[in-house]
Amino acid sequence: MLDIKFIRENKELIAEGAKKKHLKFDVEALIKADDERKALTLLVEEKRAKQNEASKRLPSMKDALEKKNLLEDMKLLKDELQKEEEKMKEVMKVWQALMLQVPNIPDMSVPEGDSDADNVEVRAWGEKPNFTYRPKDHIELMEKLDLADFEIGAKVAGFRGYFLKNEGALMEFALWQFVMDFFREKKSEYKLLFVPSLVRRETLLGTGYLPQGEDDLYKTQDNDYLAGTAEVATMSYNADKVLDKKDLPIKKLAFSPCFRREAGSYSKDVKGLYRLHEFYKFEQVIWCEASHEKSVALHEELLSNVEELLQALNLPYHVVANCGGDLGLGQVKKYDVEVWRPSQNKYGETHSCSYFHDFQCRRLNTRYKDDDGKMKFAHSLNNTALATPRILIQIVENNQQEDGSIKIPEVLRKYMGGAEYIGKKS
RNA sequence: GGAGGAGUGUCGGAGUGGUCUAACGAAACAGUCUUGAAAACUGUCACCUGGGAAACCGGGUCGUGAGUUCGAAUCUCACCUCCUCCGCCA
Questions:
Q1: Would you tell me which of A6, A117, A361, A411 could form a disulfide with A366, CB atoms 3.0–4.6 Å apart?
Q2: Is A352 known to be catalytic?
């Protein structure tokens, strides 16, 4: 959500931003609704002022007739007021629905484009492995080594279901341990937070996943939702709070299971561990003061944390700046980090790093008192720290050996009993 | 699942139909005192919103929403959250 005053004063910016994001949004319709809102507010407030004034006089009135007349007048006023308030409710409904649809304005540096095909590479790191044979994909590798079972996965959990087995499961746990240790040792200002996945609707409205993303969310019979990311509960942790400026920026490393319906992606990545209904994610989340410069600096920090992590795992990756059409409603700018997938001879997304300015905190009502004594909405940012089991794809594929075994990344070995390989026949 | 109680500003907390303009306290900020700090004292101090250059003036907000009333923090209903007791389970 944006400030209506800002919207009114910058409607060209809003329109341009929506266009850059390839979103349809009619600013003029909002302005019109806001005009109505303002006009009606004026009428209603005028009547209320009259009512308040009478209310103040009434108790001390001695003249019975005069009092009776005033009461009659007030009854009439009340009827009119009720009619206007009814109208006001209708206008507000329209107004609020439109307000929830206003896209945040993308940063100047966001490249033009329609889809992820138009994202622009910022930099690449690491050596892509050279194979003397056609590299196998993770499905084949993992099934051969009995690290995963997709057939029974589908039988038990339905489409996109999976089991992780043996060292496959062990490596998932190893990665979790690794991430936690990595942050605890090197980024200790990111505090661990284990968050709920089963959340209320307001949390998803607040983070900007609703009202637009209804189809991609699982919903329970109690009208709760399964969140697709720990960001939702984490951001909501500070909903309706006034943060102490001294504590900013607040940095969290949040963990949760994640659930996504993946509606509309039925033909994409139907096999393997890439696109799952159920997975696990460590998410970096930051609140900072309302400053564009601070947001930008922390955005880069979130990105560099992940680069460090991937470098420790020795995975070749590149960073792309997402184009306007690939940005979410609230995002100002986004980097995706994509790790090399030898079997497909291309990069596959593993991390998504974005900042929102006050878009989320305004919806969630997360504020702090600034030095000038004014309440301000905080800024928010987030980035994946590590999502499993997706990253297993790239670990397995990049570290595969000709005999079908897998070399375990050095940093993970201590969490996997010290072994150097999975499935190496000595 | 059953019974009862509660939700007030940054925090604690008073207020049970009309000067509520929400008391009081804490925190915070400014000042006095002090070599400095603390303490003490003095002052400022809820938020959102409309108008205005400002002083100031208007409206709203007491968990959320609806209702009763000329008038609601206060009465009624529904919902949300928390607490206590009982039951059930671990």
A1: A361
A2: yes
Cα separation, A204 vs A48, whole angstroms: 35
Task: Clarify whether A390 is annotated catalytic.
Answer: yes
Please give the nucleotide, over all strands, whose C1' is closest to the CA of residue A78: B70
Whether A53 CB is under 7 Å from strand B? yes
| Strand B contact at CB of residue A39, distance < 7 A | no
**All domains of chain A, ordered by start, with CATH?**
4-99 (1.10.287.40), 116-422 (3.30.930.10)
Q: Are A258 and A384 in contact (CB under 8 A)?
A: no
Supply the pTM of this predicted model.
0.91
Q: Is the CB of A240 under 7 A from strand B?
A: no
Q: How confident is the model over A142-190, as pLDDT tens digits?
A: 999 999 999 999 999 888 999 999 999 999 999 999 999 999 999 999 9
Alpha-carbon gap, residue A155 to A384, rounded angstroms? 30
Bases along strand B below 7 A from a protein CB? 10-11, 18-19, 21, 47-50, 58-60, 66, 70-71
Burial call A20-57: b when 16+ CB within 10 Å, e when fewer: bbbbebebeebbebbebbeebeeebeebeeeeeeeeee
Q: Give the ipTM of the model, two decimals please.
A: 0.81
The one catalytic residue among A36, A202, A349, A413: A349
User: Do A331 and A356 contact (CB within 8 A), yes or no?
Assistant: yes
